[in-house]
Write a structure and sequence with these properties.
With 495 residues, the chain is an alpha/beta fold. It has helices spanning 33-44, 58-65, 97-104, 112-120, 134-147, 215-218, 221-232, 253-257, 305-320, 325-333, 366-380, 394-399, 401-406, 426-429, 434-443, 454-464, 480-486; strands spanning 24-28, 48-53, 69-72, 85-88, 109-111, 124-129, 153-160, 165-168, 185-189, 204-207, 243-247, 263-268, 275-280, 285-290, 293-299, 343-349, 355-361, 385-389, 413-416, 447-450, 470-474. A ten-stranded mixed β-sheet has the order 8-7-9-6-10-11-12-13-14-15, with helices on both faces. A six-stranded mixed β-sheet has the order 16-17-21-18-19-20, with helices on both faces. Strands 3-2-1-4-5 form a five-stranded parallel β-sheet, sandwiched between helices.
Length: 495
């Protein structure tokens, strides 16, 4: 009997527009948000899809309900079926038994990012890139397209209830508007980590901003800018519909867009931008102007000028895809946000009287932290803004330590748990600590303390927080548990 790792045909990944019909695809880590969405899309396009994951979940149950076989546990010999392609989640190591077996038998193995590129081929691919704002902008754009009846497929690296979670399988052809009948829309978040966005195959691309991050991969800003240029160069030429939307400021526009074949448009605060954005931080009113004339307006339910820019970028691309400006504004006005992106968890009544509002946020880069704190301070004017910030990765903390120290000026108190250890080496772990950040914050006059474990931070909040305060829990690690515990939701579901 043939094993899982026997190929039945020529390479899928090398085909310009892959024919998935009848081809067998195995996904390692199939229960992940993006991977499960990819599995549904591949099945929709005719592939015979199977996969494995460590444990059952709502995602694996949904996959099985869609007729996709899911094996719980990992072993090379657990499935007896031929296979044309193996797609591995970004969390899968190269010493994984299924990964190793596929390589041993000569089966093509590709990354999750390359899998996204595969399903963008033959579709109207839209890739949302930038150091910050990818998940929010992807979700905003997807929400607009759904509300306007364009039935997009999508994969986003966060949970947004309004768009069906983190993924959605839409129409094979655009069902309405001036682009009706063209290949269906496939919107995807395009992450620059490890240059994974170079595997995307978009027709339309966005670059929100470009800053120093993932320096353990890139080394310096110059290499990051080069990587974004190479991403933009993937877009087809203007005659074949290739379009790039890039921030007028903060995205190294001249270097990134130099020599591109696609059409390039700019957006931002500058009146000279092709799409001029205006925002009132007190009311949340956002407006996009073209040639000095307002074409789209909405009142955002999510505070912050960075969210206004995200919304504007989503609005512009939605218009390019055939949505009317009026309908775009209505959709953005009804957008409720993304989990862990300035998400209001609720109010907590304190034992000594009064109430405290608690927010949860994914921010883990200095610019993101600063933007979130400024937005919360401006919109809600709390008596005190208390921030619990868990640094994410020792390398990022070390490379950007001084930048982090500058980014918490809007907070009255900053509580720092231990750095979340992920991806870095044990040697890197010894080079920086949470106390180093606390020392830098105190040197700048910010009241800061290092506390651990999480239970100790919840206890400190119980003592410290008072009526009218706003508590925001920030970071890309498990720090979200603190906000839920403080609200009495110790068993809240992970985001």
């Amino acid at each position: 009997m043939p094993t899982l790792f026997e190929s039945t045909g020529p390479s899928l990944a090398e085909q310009e527009v892959p024919d998935f019909a009848g081809r067998r695809v195995w996904l390692i880590g199939i229960g992940g948000s993006g991977m499960s969405g990819l599995a549904h899309m591949l099945k929709r396009r005719g592939a015979i899809v199977c996969g494995s994951d460590r444990e059952p979940s709502a995602a694996t149950e949904a996959l099985e309900a869609d007729g996709i076989t899911v094996r719980i546990g990992h072993a090379a010999e657990q499935v007896t079926a031929p296979c044309d392609l193996v797609i591995a989640s970004a969390a899968i190591r190269k010493d994984h038994p299924e990964y190793e077996e596929a390589l041993r038998r000569g089966i093509e193995v590709v990354s999750y990012a390359k899998g996204v590129g595969l399903v963008q081929r033959g579709r109207t691919g839209v890739s949302i890139a930038g150091t910050h704002g990818k998940s929010s902008t992807t979700s905003m754009l997807s929400h607009i397209l759904i509300q306007c009846g364009l039935d997009p497929s999508l994969i986003v690296g966060a949970t947004c209830t309004q768009i069906g979670g983190g993924s959605r399988t839409g129409a094979d052809a655009i069902p309405a508007g001036p682009m009706r009948g063209r290949p269906g829309i496939m919107v995807a978040e395009a992450c620059e980590f490890n240059r994974s966005f170079h595997h995307h195959r978009p027709v339309i691309g966005l670059i929100n901003n470009v800053e120093e991050d993932h320096l353990e991969i890139y080394g310096n800003l110059e290499n990051i800018v080069k990587a974004f240029h190479e991403f933009a160069a993937l877009l087809p030429d203007a005659e074949h519909g290739g379009r790039l939307l890039i921030a007028a400021d903060g995205a190294h526009r001249r270097d990134v867009a130099s020599g591109l074949r696609c059409a390039v448009s700019t957006f931002g605060w500058a009146p000279s931008a092709d799409f001029h954005v205006q925002y009132d931080p007190r009311t949340g009113q956002s407006t996009v102007l073209v040639g000095g004339n307002a074409v789209c307006s909405w009142s955002s339910q999510i505070p912050g000028d960075h969210m206004a820019l995200n919304g504007a970028a989503a609005a512009i691309i939605a218009h390019w895809l055939g949505c009317e400006w009026r309908a775009i504004g209505e959709a953005l006005g009804g957008f409720m946000g993304v989990d862990r992106r300035m998400q209001c968890l609720g109010d907590r009544t304190m034992r000594h009287g009064g109430s405290v509002t608690v927010f949860d946020d994914y921010g883990h880069h200095p610019t993101e932290c600063e933007a979130t704190l400024k937005a919360l301070r401006t919109r809600f004017e709390p008596k005190r803004l208390i921030c619990v910030f868990q640094p994410h990765q020792h390398s990022r903390t070390r490379f950007l330590l001084e930048h982090f120290a500058k980014s918490f000026s809007q907070a009255d108190v900053v509580i720092v748990p231990d750095i979340y250890f992920v991806r870095d080496s044990e040697e890197e772990r010894t080079k920086v600590s949470a106390s180093d950040l606390v020392d830098r914050l105190r040197a700048r006059g910010v009241a800061a303390m290092h506390l651990y474990p999480f239970d100790a931070i919840v206890e400190q909040l119980e003592v410290m927080a008072a009526d009218g305060d706003l508590v925001v829990v920030m970071g890309a690690g498990p720090v979200w548990k603190i906000g839920h515990s403080f609200l009495g939701r110790a068993n809240g579901a992970a985001r």
